[in-house]
Amino acid sequence: MTKYIFVTGGVTSSLGKGIISASLAKLLQSRGYRVTIQKFDPYINIDPGTLNPYEHGECYVTEDGAETDLDLGHYERFLNTPTSKANNITTGRIYQNVINKEREGAFLGKTVQVVPHITDEIKRNFRILGENGEYDIVITELGGTVGDIESLPYIEAVRQFRWEIGSNNSLVIHLTLVPFLAAAGELKTKPTQHSVKMLLEYGIQPDVLVCRTEHHLTNDIRKKIAQFCNVNINAVIESIDAPSIYDVPLLMLKEQLDKTVLTKLKLPHKNEPSLENWKDFLGRLKNPTADVRIALVGKYVELPDAYKSITEAFIHAGAKQECKVRVEYIPSEQLTPENAVEKLKGVHGVLVAPGFGERGFEGKIQAIRHVRENNIPFFGICLGMQCAVVEFGRHVLGLEEANSTEMNPETPHPVIGMMEDQKNITLKGGTMRLGAYPCDIKKGTKAAAIYGKNHISERHRHRYEFNNDYLKQYEAAGLTPSGINPDNGLVEIVELKNHPFFVGSQFHPELKSTVANPHPLFINFVAASLAYARKK
Ligand code: GLN
To answer: pTM of this prediction?
Structure first.
């Protein structure tokens, strides 16, 4: 039978529930258990696809085309296994399902209520991933903080669910903060006590407390927390601030979180976790022998979470070659023809980020012109590739007003246009070209050398595409379409001849980079930037 672990949060948000969940999953996976993680978000949007990145950071896209919370990216990067639509549920989706059933008449004249109908639908979703025997353990991370109005139905659903499946088959881990009061020189346990008390009011006794702290928990503190919160002393787990999120699995191993969890779930401890590859990755991450500066040009750079998967992909690719990648965030809005040289001075590579809308678009064009003309390594992702096509059209092909119809619907040279099947779509949510699509790589190109194969699959999230009416003109002038969708001829990769590294991808390679499998495009871009740095 599948076992269920719930991870709740108390005291404050941003304590790192996602990383704790992913770290625990990693430890259990490395002991031989089949584990997946799902995230329940208490907001009313159906999915984060319509959210501005400033709200909750990047929108992560799964293989099956779901637009999801960025924590799913952490799950995939840690576990190296794909997630799906079923791994991210929002209050919006729960209510939508219940309301659809109500319209179908499925409730047979009953009054539809939060309890039992919403809580039943939440519980149904808790179970979905555990149903077909694919997983031994399903970890469910509940977004928000205990005590939030929005979280209440989830907490109640957990209470009922535990009662239904029994205490040996489920477990609640509560993540709290143990703050350090400098004036008193002490760690304080009261916020944790209060937060557990609140959970108790809702009928849930947590089994394990993970305590986020800036200082080590002494035995006395652990004992106090255990005693006042009714847990075993070995169920008080210290989660000390770590230099990198990738240290957390090892910190949790040291705290024996995995053992405590397995014991409580009455599961055999099996083998000790084998984390050799993980440790090897950390070793290379922490002992770089080289250094590169890469500019990330984007419109949401004030909030690095907006580009989470890209920055993590740089970490994986850098570690692979023992190279520290220093990502420098450049707001595209501030780049002009006059200042681009100055602003990009000293960087060894430029990544132009994905994005939507006009703001900062022209700045991205300036950045690309600069790197193209000066042989500085360039990597453009999604909108970044589209910008490269526009830039090349304007400054190499002489199509002065070349543009994407997203930015100027009236352009005389729509080198990037809306995809045919997008033209009649009016709804915004979940209607882009989303998820995994196949791509054929042209022989003899840089893309072929990078991937080392001719057929790939990558994840997408866009409405616009390269306009194939201009294909011949571009190719003749040296911008090669090196990746093509075999089913519809869409250009998925472009690359420049006679340039050390100038590659644009319509898809998002960052979504598939994991600790175990750094993405080849990122590896090669970092390598090209390193070569450029050495030459300088
Ligand atoms: N706005 C562009 C499009 O929809 C690019 C999207 C993106 O960068 N993800 O095609």
So the answer is: 0.96
